[in-house]
Design a protein that fits this description.
The protein is of the alpha/beta class. Helix content is about 30%, strand content about 30%. The strands form 4 sheets. The chain has a 7-stranded mixed beta sheet with strand order 5-4-1-6-11-8-12. A two-stranded antiparallel ribbon has the order 2-3. The chain is globular, with a radius of gyration of 17 Å.
């Protein structure tokens, strides 16, 4: 897609880990080489042919700029935008995400957005390429779906008979029959505008914004990456799980 732009929010404080550096630079060792966790999503985007990427940062993330620079070492062009401090509002279970995504509105408006998180690792490497390939001209939003046995940690997806997304159930606290969560998203300009309008109204719950878009007739579908995996490195428990899985033969 010639109008594609990658969008990576990395403005969180990372207080759960308490690291002396941005959690997005947490070292992942593969084949005796260092690779920060945020580089995985950058590589996913570049594999899909995305050459323009914007990373949303806060005022403390200068080390991210130092590592990624302008992106040319990674085969892309990277720009940065700052999410201004804002007190959490509403009852969002992901406070700040919608606001962080909208902080790049001046760069993403009118383009096809490829959104992935900076503290996650998704396999296989072509997850974004598969998601984009599954989109039809009528689709506004395409969710990248991964199987999970931990629904309480993720945005779970309820699908209709034809693969359309009926609803997002964000981190269900009660037992659920849902087995697929969204790990990344590709969306077109209509959803960018919808997100921007929601944030302007101070409606900051990203799951509610997605559900509202579905109710209002935007075409939202999902593509299942049944042979893939999704790891969220937001806590030390999750980091330990990833480390153990990487040691398995």
């Amino acid at each position: 897609m010639h109008d594609a732009i990658g969008l990576i929010p990395a403005a969180g404080k990372g207080v759960r880990l308490g690291l002396p550096y941005p959690k997005e630079l947490y070292p992942i060792i593969r084949e005796n080489r260092y690779k920060p966790v945020a580089q995985f999503v950058v590589d996913n985007l570049v594999t899909a042919g995305v050459r323009d990427i914007v990373i949303v940062i806060n005022e403390t993330k200068a080390q991210l700029l130092g590592y990624f620079g302008d992106g040319r070492r990674f085969g892309c062009n990277i720009a940065y935008t700052v999410q201004e401090p804002r007190a959490a509002e509403g009852s969002s279970t992901s406070p700040g995400l919608a606001d962080a995504l909208d902080a790049a509105y001046h760069l993403t408006r009118g383009r096809t957005v490829f959104f992935g998180m900076a503290d996650t690792i998704m396999t296989p490497p072509d997850v974004f390429a598969r998601t984009a390939a599954a989109m039809t001209p009528e689709d506004d939003v395409m969710l990248t779906l991964f199987p999970t046995t931990r629904p309480e940690k993720f945005g779970m997806v309820r699908l209709g008979e034809r693969g359309q997304v009926i609803a997002i159930v964000d981190k269900p606290r009660e037992k659920t029959t849902l087995t697929e969560m969204w790990g990344a998203i590709v969306w077109r300009p209509r959803f960018t505008e919808r997100l921007h309008e929601s944030v302007q109204r101070k409606e900051l719950d990203f799951a509610k914004t997605l559900n509202g878009a579905i109710r209002d007739g935007l075409r939202v579908r999902g593509v299942a990456i049944s042979d893939g995996s999704f790891s969220d490195l937001g806590t030390y428990e999750e980091i330990r799980e990833l480390d153990l899985s990487s040691r398995q033969p």
